[in-house]
Design a protein that fits this description.
Elements (H helix, E strand, L loop, with lengths): L6 H15 L1
Amino acid sequence: MLRTRRPFIAYIMDAQGNELFR
């Protein structure tokens, strides 16, 4: 993912990923 260009999007996706793994 483009974390440098879209850090906000990456943050949301990471948060959703953490919820799926929980």
